[in-house]
Amino acid sequence: QAWTARILTLFPEMFPGPLGQSLAGKALEKGIWRLETMQIRDFATDKHRTVDDTPFGGGAGMVMRPDVVDAALAAATGDGLGTKGNGPAIYLTPRGRLLKQDLVQELAAGPGVVLLCGRYEGLDERVIEARGLLEVSLGDFVLSGGEPAALALIDACVRLLPGVMGAEATLDEESFDAGLLEYPHYTRPAEWKDKKVPEVLISGHHEKIQSWRQAQSEETTKLRRPDLWDAYLKRGAAGDR
Ligand code: SAM
């Protein structure tokens, strides 16, 4: 069974979108992964197919009804609670756990994901609790809907699936693998706009290149992401590096 992304959305036509192109698109065609969309509106029960209502307690905006979303989730996961062979059921929300590469790796290693894309002000809290949804955020900003977050999460997972990347080796040295940001890259021409490629990279000296890259990674991380740098040092001190 191929890795499967099952998406619950009010805008199924947004998929596969960019995931139909390039590496992810080719892998989709080859059947390395599968994409299924479900229209949440199909689970509304009134004749207007209503999925949202005004918030109790007042305030602006609308809230997605728990009964409608629950029925959609039940259909997507094929059982009551949990998700059996589908991987976790995730609600994309700015309140969630920040999406990081470790979670991406975990999800890519499993059978797939069920992704619930919110709209309006989001979901009624009770359906999040009742379904034990894993809440995941793309970052500290507010999107108008969960769909772009779902596209990003799937893209990050799919490129880790076996057979998706042409050169598997390129996965080995990426940002975050060692807990550091990546070193800078250069290609031809060797001199461009009076800027030369660092000497060491054309030296052909493999070990020197490696240590230059390591030093660059450390420097960039220290400067740009003191949070990652601290975690890196702590891990080193704990001896698990
Ligand atoms: N009222 C919500 C708040 O202040 O947190 C924002 C709702 S937003 C306009 C509508 C939907 O977009 C959310 O239900 C969620 O599914 C999605 N969304 C917005 N920002 C997101 C983010 N940073 N990560 C993941 N999903 C996000």
TrEMBL record:
Keywords of this entry: Cytoplasm, Methyltransferase, S-adenosyl-L-methionine, Transferase, tRNA processing
Enzyme Commission designation: 2.1.1.228
Main location class: cytoplasm
A molecular function GO annotation: tRNA (guanine(37)-N1)-methyltransferase activity
UniProt record, GO biological process: methylation
Catalysed reaction, written as an equation: guanosine(37) in tRNA + S-adenosyl-L-methionine = N(1)-methylguanosine(37) in tRNA + S-adenosyl-L-homocysteine + H(+)
Amino acids binding S-adenosyl-L-methionine: 118, 138-143
Keyword S-adenosyl-L-methionine recorded: yes
Family that this chain belongs to: Belongs to the RNA methyltransferase TrmD family.
HAMAP family per record: TrmD
Name of the protein in question: tRNA (guanine-N(1)-)-methyltransferase
Organism this protein belongs to: Dongia rigui
